[in-house]
Amino acid sequence: MWGLSATFGYVSDIAGESGTRNRTRRAILGAAAEVLARDRTATLADIAKAAQVGRSTLHRYFPDRDVLVHAAVADSYLVIQQSIQDAAVDQGTALEAMRRLVAAIVDTGGRMLFLYGDSRVLEDFAARDGGGDTEEPGEGSESDTAPDSVSSMVVDLIRRGQSEGVFDPSLDVDWVQDVIWALVYTGCEAASRGTLPRHGVTTAVVRMLENGIREQ
Prior knowledge:
Blueprint: H1 4-14, H2 19-38, H3 44-51, H4 55-61, H5 65-86, H6 94-107, H7 109-116, H8 119-128, H9 150-163, H10 173-193, H11 201-213
Helix pairs in contact: 1-5, 2-3, 2-5, 2-7, 5-6, 5-7, 6-9, 6-11, 7-10, 9-10, 10-11
């Protein structure tokens, strides 16, 4: 799930960087994800402009496009994971936690579109990382055994909702998780096309979820 082992390796690599250098790196990676989500053919110059750094600065951190894209994938995993952890989905009622979960993932919409808008992004990431996994969020893998893995947090929330009588217990937990990710992605994609206002994505996704998975 998610290729999180690669993410943690990336985090270890940058742990010793100074605050300024780390902020610059993260700004470049964030810009790369946002720009490439909109235009897969965007140049390094386009990304440098979006990050508000010079091309020479970008090249000091990332010598070529492949290195930058690989790092942006790992960083995007990290951003999404941290956002979900910050949502504290183990607290409050299951329904409240589900709404916070959706809002948290929607807030990382650009990263979601970057990671899952083109299957080649994760395929290339896996190939470069030595055959790592490219599964969608919610699909099983050895990294699911990590105590604080994203998959475990979401699955536990769904099961809690079912046990509380809030979510339909007849629905498969993994399927519900897949639906959550699919709806969030679709909502973020609609916002990027202008067919749904960005501020309305969370509300739309929550409404669809609650109408579909709540116990009737």
